[in-house]
Amino acid sequence: MNVAKQIVKNMFSLSAAEFAGKGLAVIFTIYLIKTIGPANNGIFTSAKSLVQGFLIIVWLGFDQVGIREVARDRTKLNDYVGAILSIRLIIGVLSYAALLLMMEFYQTSNSPSLLHKYVTYVYGILILGNAFLINWAYQAVERMQIIAIRSLLVNSLNLMGLLVFVNDENDLLLAVWIIVISFLVNSIWMLGHFFKSYGIPRINFNKLIWKTIIWQSIKVGLVFLIVTFYSIIGVQMLSHWRGDIETGIYGAAFQIMVFLLIPTGILQGAFFPQISKLNEMGEKLQMISKYLTINILVGIFLSFCLYFFSDFVVDILGDKYQGTNDVLKILSGTLLIQYLSTSYFSPLIAWKRENTVIFANLAGLLANVLMNFLLIPEYGYIGAAIATIFCEGAVLVVLWIIFNYEFKTIFLPDLLKIITFSIPGIILSFYLVSIGLHFSFSFIIGSLIIISFQFFFKIIKLSDVALITKK
Known about the structure:
This protein is mainly alpha-helical and 471 residues long. The chain has 18 helices and no strands. The chain has helices spanning 3-59, 62-72, 77-109, 114-123, 126-131, 135-140, 144-165, 172-198, 207-259, 262-277, 281-308, 310-317, 324-350, 354-407, 412-420, 423-434, 439-456, 462-470. Helix 11 (281-308) runs antiparallel to helix 17 (439-456).
């Protein structure tokens, strides 16, 4: 199978995974947020952000290193799965123990509510569950349909469990148990499927493999660790200074933005194994150009969509989430910047330039801490949303500098064409809203203009669409 067809196959398999599974996730998440209310959602958001810090230590950069190495030589599959499982299980146990100790310390010094403590303990079990999650192995061998099945199963269980058992604000802890148990069941299923398909990998302590994997994963993982701190810092500052309700409102808006980042994850997962295989500079640049074009077009469309439909979110969640729409309007800018950043971030990781990416993320972390510190005490969740723009903007600027240094281009002509030919549709949409046309019709008309211009000026080619529809 040629590279183009394999990427298309990967995209469609991952699309099935993410859009079927995550489509259900959108439904049950909105239901959960609406049912438990802003205050309890604030508790849940704060607990999730804290656990996320430990999860990123378990994830580190093992997925990317595993995919990168196995994609180049599939005979390494069982060795890498065995080694990564061994390392992650140890890290997972130590991380969960550290979380328990931290919460006990908080209990005496900062006195979180008993509910907050229990929610954190239960949700923290995902640290152990992620230790034996092997999504990456199926991405490495490009069997994306297995990821699709798992994603669909886990989110189906979540949806059914939450709809049946979670009915009011008092069911927060029960909801967390449902989410955790469904994740564990599906992770065990995937592990069993791998054992059946490829044999049981030996849990090994090969010093040479461990040293190689850990060293490479630390370099990659530092990037993701810093990125994770962005959201942790903002949420924890918001929780400390403004309380659970504002944290819940911001958390609801941020979760919706996270859903709209799913397509960039699909594109990254589809392109990453193919990008990792390339060695010749011309081939690398050609592949990045395709990846960047698709990624940014999707980012423009979704950020445009998020801005226009932000008010509709309050209608769904209810008046108690008033303010979520204002946060979403700001986060729509953050969304576009993140799509841009991923277009440069992923190739650098694929070609072992993770050391340079760390500088970009450190710039973002510095901007995030500074702006949250300045804005949250005065402006609350609006300040937290604005801080994310400064944070992601700093990351993007440094990534541009790094990428240009490494590859002598940032594909500026491609960027300018994509953005320029999107502007008329965006301006028209805002004009139609200003003269009284319903926002949904304005959005549809503007979107059609954007898509038409991309085809007319051959940024997207009909041959590409034909290839996709044939698959």
